[in-house]
Design goal:
With 492 residues, the protein is an alpha+beta fold. The chain folds into two domains: 4-241, ATPase, nucleotide binding domain (Nucleotidyltransferase, domain 5), CATH 3.30.420.40; 252-435 and 461-492, ATPase, nucleotide binding domain (Nucleotidyltransferase, domain 5), CATH 3.30.420. The chain is 34% helix and 24% strand. A seven-stranded mixed sheet has the order 18-19-17-16-22-23-24. Helix 9 (243-250) crosses helix 14 (437-449) and helix 10 (308-316) runs antiparallel to helix 12. The protein is globular and about 65 Å long. The chain starts with a strand and ends with a helix.
Length: 492
């Protein structure tokens, strides 16, 4: 008798539910977006109740579609958007405020204050990440400081501050609040050396340590659910991961030096650095990929703010494209103008540059520059940013990468993938499954529960392997020109 695994991917834009069989084969995926609530200040929020309602709706659709096998669904894996914060009543599950999304910079004054007080180094040393409003700690601190109901109850042991996974687990399973190591490590409250919440850092951010969830290995049983009566019997949630971590697990980056890039709105680049943390001062962070088999797997990570969002900007704002999917074809037919670069600092620059006040620019235009050439520059800037992150990772471990494994919708773009391979001078392997985050959580849950054998992996996952075809002189000149353009912003 066949058995099946449900994967849940609760991401920034929406929620996906996937169905995977015991051979590790993706059978179906359905999705639904939720609202992006943007305030007058430009702050970004989500409605947690809307997210939960959408999840139940998707589960219902999937179970109705596969009604004949629903009793053979044995386990669930969950991944989620990281750093996004929910403050909620730990008895009822009622959210006390909208979820504050990872992209939101409302806590900038709080992090500025911490840096001015010379506390940034101790936080970076313990957590592996620099003080930033984009991590959960500063967002929680903002909620405590500015939301009356939360400030008044913060010491009452009635509030839980958590990432989205914890809140969903509570809604589905009840019990005490729980999270996994990969999500905890992105809050900036978790000591990645001691593998525990850090009292000193909680005190710096004015956050009660007992308001945080309990941390468990990523392949633990986090609870049992029947999705509010949709299943005959309750089944375990047997894996929880951050979304980028789920994609890395699905890409089989299980050995030191393995590296993947997920191309989405932004891009997450991760490298496996094995079982001991290595701290970098070069613009990348150290975090936990997952914790399984009684040991942690650490990663280097660099996140860029604009990847696919650059192309979408050309569609929505500049009107140079009707569809983002057309970008690669147009770029491939554009002139290759030496010295033309687009720096996509629409909301500052993330890793490895870390300049929040930078603003976007197009540099090096001449009379031959038309819409096609601007589209080409917008494609190339994605690859340059990923190149810069990977080169730092290579330097930190003193060895070149063997290949780059990639996923996400933009990996269908042949021009972008070939340029990525050329500028890295490395093979780039694209996945047949473009959205791997939920798939990785499903695989971990399937293996952990025994539904899948450990060999149930993505052995057939690579659809195209791009190999570098650019000569060394051209590549080095292009990278040099990119650095010149970039430095105009970084030196301001």
């Amino acid at each position: 008798m066949s058995e099946y695994v449900l994967g849940i991917d609760q991401s920034t834009q929406g929620t996906k539910v996937i169905l995977v069989n015991s051979n590790g084969e993706l059978m179906d995926v359905i999705s639904k977006n939720h609202r992006q609530i943007v305030t007058r200040e430009g702050w970004v929020e989500h409605d947690p109740e809307e997210i939960y309602s959408n999840l139940l709706e998707l589960i219902n659709v999937m179970l109705l579609k596969y009604n004949s096998i629903k009793d053979d669904i044995k386990v669930v894996g969950l991944c989620n958007q990281r750093e996004t914060v929910v403050a909620w009543n730990r008895n009822s599950g009622r959210p006390l405020f909208n979820a504050v999304v990872w992209q939101c910079g409302r806590a900038q004054k709080i992090t500025d204050r911490i840096i001015e007080n010379k506390l940034g180094d101790v936080i970076k040393r313990k957590t592996g990440v620099p003080v930033s409003p984009f991590y959960s700690a500063a967002k929680i601190s903002w909620l405590i400081e500015y939301v009356d109901e939360i400030r008044e109850k913060k010491d009452s042991n009635k509030i839980c501050f958590s990432t989205v996974d914890t809140w969903l687990i509570f809604k589905l399973c009840g019990g005490n609040p729980k999270t996994d190591f990969s999500n905890a490590a992105r809050t900036q409250l978790f000591n990645i050396h001691d593998l525990s919440w850090d009292q000193e850092i909680c005190d710096i951010f004015n956050i009660p340590l007992n308001s945080l969830p309990e941390v468990f290995p990523s392949d633990s049983i986090f609870g049992y659910t029947d999705f509010e009566g949709m299943l005959t019997n309750k089944i375990p949630i047997h894996a929880v991961l951050g979304d980028s971590n789920g994609a890395m697990y699905a890409q089989e980056c299980h050995n030191k030096g393995d590296v993947k890039a997920t191309y989405g709105t932004g891009s997450s680049v991760m490298m496996n650095i094995a079982n001991d943390p290595i701290l970098s001062d070069e613009g990348i962070v150290t975090s936990l990929g997952w914790y399984t088999n009684n040991k942690p797997t650490y990663v280097f990570e660099g996140n860029i703010n604009y990847a696919g969002a650059v192309t979408q900007w050309l569609v929505d704002k500049v009107k140079l494209l009707d569809n983002a999917s057309d970008a690669g074809t147009i770029a491939n037919n554009a002139k290759d103008i030496s010295g033309l670069y687009l720096i996509p600092a629409f909301t500052g620059l993330g890793a490895p540059y870390w300049k929040n006040d930078a603003r976007a620019m197009i540099y090096g235009m001449d009379r031959n520059t038309g819409y096609a050439e601007i589209i080409r520059a917008s494609e190339e800037c994605i690859a340059y940013q990923i190149h810069d992150i990977i080169k730092i990772m290579e330097m930190e471990i003193s060895e070149p990468i063997r290949e780059l494994r990639v996923d996400g919708a933009p990996t269908r773009d042949k021009f972008l993938m070939q340029f990525q391979s050329d500028i890295l001078n490395s093979d780039v392997k694209t996945s047949k499954i473009t959205e791997l985050s939920g798939f990785g959580a499903a695989l971990m849950a399937g293996v952990g529960s025994g539904v899948m054998d450990k060999s149930s992996t993505l052995n057939k996952k690579f659809s195209i392997v791009y190999t570098p075809g650019m000569d060394n002189e051209t590549r080095l000149n292009k990278i040099k020109g990119w650095k010149v353009a970039l430095n105009l912003l970084l030196q301001e």
